[in-house]
Amino acid sequence: MGSSIYLDHNATTALDPIVRTEMTPWLDAKFGNPSSLHAFGQEARRAVDAARARVARLVGAEPEEIVLTSGGTEANNLAILGVAEGSRPTRRRVVTTAIEHQSVLGPCGFRAHGGGALTVLPVDRDGRLDPAEALASLRNDTLLASVMLANNDVGTEQPVGALASRARELGIPLHTDAVQAVGKVPVDVRALGVDLLSFSAHKLHGPSGAGALYVRRGVALAPRAFGGHQERGLRPGTENVAAIVGFGKACDLAAERLERDATHLARLRAGFEAALLATVPGAVVNGDGAPRLPNTSNVSFDGVDGQLLVINLDLLGLAVSTGAACSSADREPSHVLLAMGRTPLEARASMRCSFGRGNTDDDVSQSVERIARAVSMLREVHQ
Ligand SMILES: Cc1ncc(COP(=O)(O)O)c(C=O)c1O
């Protein structure tokens, strides 16, 4: 077996050593509570404020528009349940899409069970919304729309900007889950015109345990937890200073490297898909007819079980996944691929490779070789 290759960057990324260096004092000698009045506390407050400014800058927001959270899941829940709680009672309908992450579908479903109405927009075979249908779903009874910027399983991007202007006309807050997009493609909240946007540190070489919700000034949001006055009362609880500091640094690095990384990732992915399609009979790339994140490749292999493939590739030293890490234990095929019109059998025959800035051309050729080996072995066993 050659050395291990990691192609699961949509699940999580390695902490950048520069980020770790920035965090280390906050895991060590520096430990103040940012709410304390003494010098220890005030130093921590300044560190959190500086990180908030960096986080805001990556997405073109003002620091006051950033609510720091524990990650993307919390940001999505706060956006959806917080807007629903703070909205006019005449509006009951939440609009979302069939391919959202569970941290969006979960709170939307929770609202619907509690007596709200829910519209779940379908997608086409490439995982794209029909823009006309999406626009038509924004009506006078809509209290919130939540449409992801880029999908975690296949990488397809959605026309969020086009929806935002219509939503603004109708006074409907528009939330976008940008957890997979931020750090991989340019994201600017003003250019997009969204009201709320979620992102997460561990997807961009920052630490786990930090994330953010952008809340445009003037958007009514109610807290989902109660306690202290931190994050303007919207997210009470003593701040995770080390993780927040790391998040800030990771955002700075992402901004600095965005163009270079995106070009590198797109080149690796193109080489990977071309080699895979040329080497493995019956391989099909999912979602390649739509605009996609540069790093994500979702491939189906006729007659192969994706979970067995992932396990066999792990034994060969290649880390990939069948889709979202948080759903991988439940054996169900990806709801994203099902929404894209694949049969359960087809959806089960798929695998996601997601490249990161540290991957090389050699990783690409080695992984294609390992995938080809594992697929032909699994096909032989099933003959
Ligand atoms: C699209 C998307 N949204 C939300 C999340 C949740 O983010 P976090 O892991 O920071 O809670 C993920 C994580 O995989 C994701 O891919």
Give a concise summary:
The chain has 383 residues and is an alpha/beta fold. The protein has helices spanning 17-23, 39-58, 72-86, 102-113, 131-136, 160-170, 189-192, 241-279, 306-315, 335-339, 344-348, 361-381, and strands spanning 5-6, 66-69, 93-97, 117-121, 142-146, 174-177, 196-200, 211-215, 283-286, 296-301, 318-319, 350-354.
Explain what you see.
The mean pLDDT is 95. The protein has a 7-stranded mixed sheet with strand order 2-8-7-6-5-3-4, with helices on both faces. Helix content is 40%, strand content 14%. The protein has helices spanning 17-23, 39-58, 72-86, 102-113, 131-136, 160-170, 189-192, 241-279, 306-315, 335-339, 344-348, 361-381, and strands spanning 5-6, 66-69, 93-97, 117-121, 142-146, 174-177, 196-200, 211-215, 283-286, 296-301, 318-319, 350-354. The two termini are 26 Å apart. By secondary structure, it is of the alpha/beta class. It folds into 2 domains: 5-13 and 258-381, Aspartate Aminotransferase, domain 1 (Alpha-Beta Complex), CATH 3.90.1150.10; 17-253, Type I PLP-dependent aspartate aminotransferase-like (Major domain) (Aspartate Aminotransferase, domain 2, 3-Layer(aba) Sandwich). Strand 5 (142-146), helix 6 (160-170) and strand 6 (174-177) form a beta-alpha-beta unit. The chain is globular. Helix 3 runs parallel beside helix 4, helix 8 packs across helix 12 (361-381) and helix 9 packs across helix 12 (361-381). Pyridoxal-5'-phosphate is lined by residues 71-73, 76, 101, 103, 148, 152, 177, 179-180, 200, 202, 211, 324.
